[in-house]
Specification:
The protein is built from one helix and three strands, in the order αβββ. The chain is mainly alpha-helical. The protein has a three-stranded antiparallel β-sheet, with helices on one face. The longest helix is centred in the first third of the chain and has 52 residues.
Length: about 130
């Protein structure tokens, strides 16, 4: 028995235009989410670097109390391991800190991270005397 087109059930679906619109919206949302996550990762690395600097400063003060002087630039932060630090300190980007004793001006010492770009002397450098 043949069915006429009048008796055929109506099947609703999405048009190609509707599917493309949904894909574009999902793409925009994914891009926004990726940018937001990337920015948070950089903030987390900066916060970790600042926390490491505070830990290093505490270790340097303990070293000073025990030895009567800060480590020299040539000795570096490595002399703090294992007595004052468990392992050599790294910044949030897994790079070693720069350490100078004496520091410039009236600073006893300076601890510097080269930051995200990995280059010394740029805007993203993190300096121990500038953190709260």
């Amino acid at each position: 028995m043949a069915r006429s087109s009048a008796n055929r059930p109506v099947v609703r679906g999405f048009t190609l235009l509707e599917l493309m619109l949904v894909l574009v919206i999902l793409g925009v949302l994914a891009t926004v989410a990726a940018v937001a996550v990337t920015g948070q990762a950089d903030n987390a690395r900066r916060n970790a670097t600042e926390a490491s600097m505070r830990t290093i400063e505490t270790a340097l003060k303990s070293y000073y109390l025990q030895r009567g002087a800060y480590p020299t630039t040539q000795e570096g932060l490595g002399v703090l391991v294992p007595t004052f630090l468990e392992k050599p300190p790294l910044d949030g980007w897994k790079r070693p800190f720069a350490y100078f004793h004496p520091g410039q001006g009236t600073r006893e010492y300076e601890i510097i991270s080269v930051g995200k770009d990995g280059e010394y002397g740029t805007e993203d450098d993190i300096r121990s005397w500038e953190i709260q």
